[in-house]
Amino acid sequence: MEKIRKKYSNGEVTIIWEPDLCDHSSICYRSLPKVFKLSERPWIDAKAATTQEIIKTVDRCPTKALTYELNKNIMIDQQETTTKITILQDGPYLVDGNVKLLDNKGNEIIYKKGIALCRCGASKNKPFCDGIHSHIGFKD
Ligand code: FES
């Protein structure tokens, strides 16, 4: 079966939503309700906020069901230089900021802005959270 991958653009940034990865953490619609509107269809209105606001919210998605692509020639002011790690209730470590993750031999696994690291131990995509914590009843 083909994976669903929907896109919503404001002309500068394109929000990509992969519903199969979503664990309904509610971070998106609590952080930016003018863009992420659960009761409307389509539920994402990328034109309702600035590109910076969208990126800041999408970067917090713990399972990466929401990601984004910047359209060409768009420069984003990266004012945040401090990497922030948040322990989500009953969920992953959410790392906000530029992250370079290395394996035990020093090889780069990933370099990106914002990742969610598994805290429950059950992810099939370690060290990343794959959303399974919400299905196994992880509490912490
Ligand atoms: S914390 Fe999300 S899969 Fe483990």
What is the fold's blueprint, element by element?
Elements: E1 6-9, E2 13-17, H1 27-31, H2 51-58, E3 66-70, E4 84-87, E5 93-102, E6 108-117, H3 133-136
Task: Characterise the protein shown here.
With 140 residues, the protein is an alpha+beta fold. It has two domains: 65 residues, Alpha-Beta Plaits (2-Layer Sandwich); 53 residues, Ribosomal Protein L9, domain 1. 12% of the residues lie in helices and 27% in strands. It is built from three helices and six strands; from the N terminus they run ββααββββα. A three-stranded antiparallel β-sheet has the order 1-2-3, covered by helices on one side. The chain is globular, with a radius of gyration of 15 Å. It starts with 5 loop residues before the first strand and ends with a helix. 23% of the residues are buried. The structure holds FE2/S2 (inorganic) cluster (FES).
User: Mind summarizing the main beta sheet?
Assistant: 3 strands, antiparallel
SSE class:
alpha+beta
Query: What ligands does this structure carry?
Result: FE2/S2 (inorganic) cluster
SSE arrangement, N to C: EEHHEEEEH
Poorly predicted runs of 5 or more residues: none
CATH topology of the largest domain: Alpha-Beta Plaits
Main-sheet strand order equals 1-2-3
Proportion in β-strands: 25-35%
Query: Level of helix content?
Result: 10-25%
CATH architecture group name of the largest domain? 2-Layer Sandwich
CATH C-level name of the largest domain: Alpha Beta
What spatial form do the alpha-carbon principal axes imply?
Answer: globular
Number of domains: 2
Mean pLDDT: 88
C-alpha end-to-end distance: 34 Å
- With helices defined by DSSP (H or I, 4 residues minimum), what is the helix count? 3
Q: What gyration radius follows from the Cα positions, in whole Å?
A: 15 Å
Number of DSSP-assigned strands = 6
